[in-house]
Amino acid sequence: MPVFLIGARIVYAHSVLQRLGKKGYCSDWAKKQFGSTAEKNRFFSRAGQLLTPSAEARLDGLKQTNPEKILQQIEQAGTL
pTM of the entire structure? Predict the structure, then answer.
């Protein structure tokens, strides 16, 4: 079950980040940002954990390029 949830979070975050800012799992952005698959999986899993449909609606695109700043933007959108 935990592995399934991690995968589901990664897929969810990929679809949202790709749609909002062309920053999906296989994007050029991701290739430049992450040195390993494990690092990329941690980021997308965390983003998928933080994202909610209501937070998605409050994200005005993703102009940030730094992964940590993107997580902060998602977190802030979820607390509004």
Answer: 0.93
